[in-house]
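Intended use. Records like the one below are meant for learning the mapping from a protein sequence to its folded structure. Do not use them to infer anything beyond what is encoded.
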Amino acid sequence: MKPSVQLWLEEKKRRLNSIPIEEELRIGKLKKRLGTKTSSSYRTPIGLSCSHSTAISINAAAILLEQNNFLLNQVIELEEKLHCSEQRRRQEGERLEELQEENRRFITRIAVFTSFRDGEELILREELIREKIYGEQERSRAELVYCFSRSLLVTCDLGITNCGREHRRKGARTAAYSPL
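Structure written out for the chain above:
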């Protein structure tokens, strides 16, 4: 066998055993995100690069990279929305606790006033105050449920990969679940 044919066969074998360019790009991006150094490409002992590829595979890699960037941006955006909804839910929970404490104080005040006033007048005042507090509590609970359902919708949308379908669905969902 001629040395040039043998060299050609060895080079072909190395190319077949090397990592495809798409995988090299993906690994490089992951290493970059993790903060580790990446090698530009795998070099053979002869000094030839094994990452030779056609224009089609380069375009495919670029498209995949754009899609990955788009999906990463969407994940980051959804994480921010989830964080905001969780923070809003915590604030509403704190507000509900404040209203419950205010309810206890009103009940205590009413108990003190009962010794000084007629029973019927106190009962009417107590009912008015309770209705006000219960109305506030119901409003707070409704807001908590709304925030929780919005955060569930955000987490359900993580699996959607088609941008056009997602925007249409997201628009339909926000219109369907609008509190107004």
